[in-house]
Structure formats: structure tokens, C-alpha cells
Amino acid sequence: MQLLQKLVSFIICANLVILLLLPLVSSSQEHLKTTGNLTSSKNIIPKSSPKLLFEITFHGFLLWVSMGFLMPVGVIAIRMSHREACGRRLKILFYVHSISQMLSVLLSTAGAVMSIKNFNNSFDNHHQRIGVGLYGMVWLQALIGFLRPRRGSRGRGLWFFVHWITGTAVSLLGIVNIYTGLQAYHQKTSRRIHLWTVLFTAEVSFIIFFYLFQDKWDYMQKQGVILEPLRPTHRIISPGEKQKGSATESC
């Protein structure tokens, strides 16, 4: 019963999100016709269509914030929480993970709605094909996270494995799709993407390093601590102490 209530609440929230985001990304059929007539056979945006160029750039920015920033922040936060037993720090890391993932879902949904309404989705490139599967996996991951069972329940282990493997797949596909999006942007606009590719590669490298560094931090801290061996202490035991010890043993 509790699982069904969570599922119904999730569906209601998802519908509200879609209804709220649809008016924010407005476009008309007239705009699509004009942009379709302006584009050349090579799908290069001419200089006379700054609106479409802005929409493509804004779409890329939304997906970078969603998949390239918020999603890794949430992954690192939950990774850091594994080192915490309990307390305030654990709650903060959990809320950082939850809030960053919810914002990531909202922004990726806005980018998906923007793509469907404003762009020519012929699905003739890797970016659009990966994007379709990625949007579905993002909402599937949100649904899995929303249906989190209580700790100690029978299905908690299976839920954790599915949540982890789905989140890993979403993170990897999101990074790959940002690279393919940069290539699609270059093909559409003929603008250079070398600087953005280098910056994003540096960001991904730092995220991977910091993610792997979590397992080694405690080990590195322990390397600087010298554990002195326990030395036996020789102490003369008086006859009174012997009598007390024998009395306690008899009790």
C-alpha cells in the first residue's frame, strides 16, 4: 500500500512538472517553418537566425548543468556519505544528493521539451538517438529513487543495486551525450568547439579523480600515524590485591 502511494505521488509530480515546463519552452509552427526554410542542405544555421542559435545554445547549457554538473555532484555526495556512520553530516550529504538529482531531472526535462518543440528531430545523428534513451533512463532513475524501501527491509539490497547501476549508466551516457552534442553544435553552426571540449574534459577528469580519491583519503590519513606497539608493564602485586582478585573471581 505504501509503495502504491509513492507511485501515485510520483506520477502526479511528474505530470505537474511537465505541465509547468511546457509553457516555459514556447515555439510556434511558423517559427519551425521559417527555420526549416532558412537552413541549407547541410543543416548549417545561417547568420540571419539568431533565435534558433540561442535556443540550441540554451539547450546545451541546460543539459550541461543537468548531466555535466548536478548529476556528478549528487553522485559524489552520496559517495562521501558512505564514510559517515550517522549524524548531521550524513543528512546534509543525503539532501545534497537528493536535491541535485531532482534539479537534474527538471533541467533535463526542460531540455527534452525544448528539443521536441523547437528542433528538427530527424534522429539522424548519435546525439539525438542517445538523448531519447537518456531522457527515459533519467525518469526511470528518478522513479527508482522515489520508491526507495526502508533500510533493513528485504528488497533493500536489490533496490540499491538497481539504483546504482541505473545511476552509473545515466552518468556515463550523459557525459557521452555532451560530447556528441558539442559535435552536433559544430555541424549545425560551423563554430569551433575545441575550447569547450578541453574544458569539459578537464572537468570530467577532475570529477573522476575526486570520485576515486574518496576511497584513498582515509588510507592516506592513516599513513601518517605511527602506531606504537603496546609494551608490557611489570608491576609488583601486593598480597592484599591478590586477595581482592581471588574474591572477585569467586563472585
Automatic annotation (TrEMBL):
The chain crosses the membrane at residues 56-80, 92-116, 128-147, 159-181, 193-213. One of its GO terms (molecular function) is heme binding. It is a multi-pass membrane protein. It is found in: Membrane. Residues 21-221 form the Cytochrome b561 domain. InterPro entries: CYB561D1/2 (IPR045150), Cyt_b561/ferric_Rdtase_TM (IPR006593). Its cofactor is heme b. Residues 1-27 form the signal peptide. This is Cytochrome b561 domain-containing protein. It comes from Salix udensis. The lineage of its organism: Eukaryota, Viridiplantae, Streptophyta, Embryophyta, Tracheophyta.
